[in-house]
Amino acid sequence: MDWLDGVINRLFARRSSLDQSLLLYLFIGVLAVAFTTLITVSICVSWERLIIMPDFKESSYWEYLTWTPPVKSSRTIQMLELIRQYSIFLYVFLGIYIATKLFYRKRILQPIRILEKSIEQIEQGNYHQPVYYNTYDEFEKTSLGLDHLRLTLQTNQKELNKLYHDQKKVNAAFSHDLRTPLATIQNNLELLEAYFEQDCLSQEAFEKSARKIKDSITRLNSFSKTMHQLQKLEDRPLQKTLQPLSRIEEHMLDLGRLRSEKELILTKEYPRITTKYDGHLINEVVENLLNNAYRFAERTISITITLQEQLLIIYVKDDGPGFSKKELLTATEPYYSQNKSSHFGLGLTIAEALAQKHGGNLKIANSLEGGAIVSAVFSLKD
After folding, report:
1. Among 12, 70, 217, 305, which is least packed, fewest CB within 10 Å?
2. What is the per-residue pLDDT for 200?
3. What is the reported pLDDT for 191?
4. Which CATH number fits domain 241-379: 3.40.50.10190, 3.40.50.11810, 3.30.565.10, 3.90.1150.10?
5. Three-state secondary structure readout of the chain
C-alpha cells in the first residue's frame, strides 16, 4: 500500500485538521476497496465464463459483471462465486484497517513522538532544539505552544544566568570594598588595645584611631544602604502608561534650568508621538546620567533624543576628561570608591539596571572630540 501512502501525502500538502484527515484516509480506503472488489469480480467472472462458456461474448460490461453461473456447476465455479460475493467484506475490513493504521502512524504517532522527544529535551534543560511539526492540524498548534514554552524557558534561563552573574559581580564588588574599612577597624582596635596594655594611650592617638574607626563604620553603613537600594531596584515594577514622548524632553529642560552652571544643549530627532512608557523610570535614568555629566563636564552637556523603530535612545555627552580604559570596561559595575575624580558610582549602575528593566541597555564610550558619551536605550514595545 505504498502507493496509497504516496497519494495521501500529496493530498495532505494542503491544510487539513485531524477529522478532515481521517475522512480523507477513509475515503481513499473506500476507493481502494471498490477498485479491488471490481478487479476481483472481473477475474472471478472471467474464470467462470472461461470454464463454462469459453466462446460467449456479452454486449455490456455490467452484464458481464452481473452474470451468474448455472445452478448446477462444478466446485471450482462455486468457489469462484463465493469469492465474488464475499470478497467485498474482506476488502472493507482490510481497507478500514489499513486506512486507520496509516492515519494513526502518520497523523497521530509521528507528532506524538516528536512532542515526546521535545519534552524530553526540555526536561534535560536543552532549550536550543526547536519544536517543529508543520501539518496545519491540532498537533501543529500543540507544537507551536510547546515551542513558545521552550523559548520562554530559554529566555528565563538566560535572565536567571545573567541575574546570577550580576549578583556574583555585586557580591565580589562589595567584598572587595568591605575589606578596607574592616581592615581599618581591626588595625585601629589592635593599636588601641596595644597602647592601653602598655599604659601609653595618648589623647591624640585615641582620637586619631577613633576617627578612622568612625569613618570606616560610616562607609559600612553606606554599603548597606547601597545593597538595599539595589535590592529595591530588582523588586520595582514596570508601569507603562500612554503619554506624549515630549514629557521626557520637558523633564530634561527643567533639570537644566535648575543647574545653570553649565550649558545644556538638547537635540531632538523624533516625531511628536504618544506612546506607552514608564516616565518615572526613564526620568530617573536621565537624572543619574545628567548628575554624572554635570560632575565631570567643563562647560557644556549635549543630549540627543532619537527614536529608531520601537527603541527610544538617549545620548548624554559631556566635554570632560572622558572614561579611562579601565572605566570603559567596569564603569557600570557597583564599585563604590571614594575617589571623586572617577566616573565610578552608583548612578551608572542604577541607570543600567533601570534601562534593562525597560527592555533596553546602557552603553558607555568616549567621543572622538573628547569627553564621555553614555547612551540609554529603552524599548517602547507593549
Report:
1. 70
2. 79
3. 81
4. 3.30.565.10
5. CHHHHHHHHHHCCCCCCHHHHHHHHHHHHHHHHHHHHHHHHHHHHHHHHHHHCCCCCCCCHHHHHCCCCCCCCCHHHHHHHHHHHHHHHHHHHHHHHHHHHHHHHHHHHHHHHHHHHHHHHHHCCCCCCCCCCCCCCHHHHHHHHHHHHHHHHHHHHHHHHHHHHHHHHHHHHHHHHHHHHHHHHHHHHHHHHHHHHCCCCCHHHHHHHHHHHHHHHHHHHHHHHHHHHHHHHHHCCCCCEEEECHHHHHHHHHHHHHCCCCEEEEEEECCCCEEEECHHHHHHHHHHHHHHHHHHCCCEEEEEEEEECCEEEEEEEECCCCCCHHHHHHCCCCCCCCCCCCCCCHHHHHHHHHHHHCCCEEEEEECCCCCEEEEEEEECCC
